[in-house]
């Protein structure tokens, strides 16, 4: 399998007023093309930081990382990935279609091509008919879907998602998880997904990266044995529960509660 | 109680209190002169007749509200607007300088803010000077600007407008620096992930995000512009404008005229601030703001 992201002994230390914070320590990881990788761990374990390093939003202080065989900076300049933030981060003065058009405008894509892509990505996230609405007129789940559509609009092969459904309720989250899997199957993208929900990680992923804090490091990498086709009730199968148990063990082993 | 009444009643109550206090003040300030007048003329009057006399002097120390209202009404609605005695005429003279100065000031304020936000050197060097500029009393500065510009042959509207500009660029500059820096981190990060250029970040993110800040500071700036234009009319011995009207009133002790001119100035200020506020609301609505 072709490796899209390849990290070797990655280190990142933030200098803060309270002294250095070791956000990433000796992280070595390979992510293959078409994989769905979840990063799970308690807060402070560096899962978001790792995603931000891939996106060139943070610079590592040691080790090496390549994205599509380039440095993260070159990859960003080549618009290699779409990034979905924890908050939808839609621009409030733009309608939904204009928000999706934003990356297309910046990348200089022709107007006719823009409207065609807006139509296609809105259909992909089931938001057809909401083109002219402003963000505040949509529910939280719909806003997050719009932000996914925005990340899909310019057809990058890599999708980086930082706890995109963290602020949504269980029912909406289940629904969006299903839709995300469907979308992944249809588009064949590589997805990196940060979460702190064990069922979400197990349900979605082909690979689960378990991380632990102080210093932020990888404690376990689990290759999922679940089939690609995943109805919601797969979450009651023994196979699913076995993987979830292993994730939970990994989290417990890496996380000390003394401090 | 209906909602219109609930909103206006407190305001009207305060207004009634002010008017009442004003009448008391008018009596207190005009009575000594009236007493003097009566004594010399050997007139004795009943207390009520005396009160009425203090409210009807042609050149009172403090004119009574109804005297000001009457003067304001006559000079606003009963004169031809081209007449030198019309307050509409004088208000227009001041207003034209105000609007020109406000336009200059807004453009200058925005330009300074853009410079400060984008050029680190300007950020460090310009702000102290801008703040210092506003600590100089405009009353001291205005005559110098007028005289210096007159010496190089610039008179009339432009010098007055420049004083308006001097007062109005400041709130716009400060407000726009804040506005252009107001985008959230995630909104900026998003632009970074698209590898957007500085110009794209400016036009597609910083400018739209700054619009509410712009209109708030423009409200302050337009009121300051009006003050600037009036102050600019004082040292020139200008023949027209609210400022000239105030100055003439003080030369000839036409206190009623002065108060009427002050009222005219306040009315213009209120209208200008309301118009800027309205423009702001319309713009924000067009930009998809949630109706309040």
> CATH class of the largest domain in chain A, anyone?
Alpha Beta
Radius of gyration of chain A: 18 Å
Succession of helices and strands of chain B: HHHHHHHHHHH
Annotation field: number of helices of chain A: 8
Name the assembly state: heterodimer
General description of the model:
The complex is a heterodimer of chains A (259) and B (292). With 259 residues, chain A is an alpha/beta fold. Chain A has helices at 47-54, 72-77, 96-106, 111-124, 140-152, 170-187, 198-204, 238-254, and strands at residues 3-16, 19-32, 36-40, 62-67, 81-84, 158-162, 190-195, 207-212, 217-223. Chain A has a 6-stranded mixed β-sheet with strand order 5-6-7-3-8-9, with helices on both faces. A 3-stranded antiparallel β-sheet of chain A has the order 2-1-4, with helices on one face. In chain A, helix 3 (96-106) packs across helix 4 and helix 3 (96-106) packs parallel to helix 5. The longest helix of chain A is centred in the C-terminal third of the chain and has 18 residues, at 170-187. The radius of gyration of chain A is 18 Å and the shape is globular. The termini of chain A are far apart. The mean pLDDT of chain A is 91. By secondary structure, chain B is mainly alpha-helical. Chain B has 2 domains: 3-62; 87-286, MetI-like fold, CATH 1.10.3720.10. Chain B contains 11 helices and no strands. Chain B has helices at 3-41, 47-54, 65-77, 87-118, 120-133, 138-151, 157-180, 185-193, 198-233, 242-251, 255-286. The radius of gyration of chain B is 25 Å and the shape is elongated. The mean pLDDT of chain B is 91. The A-B interface holds A 55-57, 76-77, 79, 81-83, 85-87, 89, 91-95, 102-103, 105-107, 134-136 and B 184, 186-187, 189-196, 200, 204-205, 208-209, 211, 287-290.
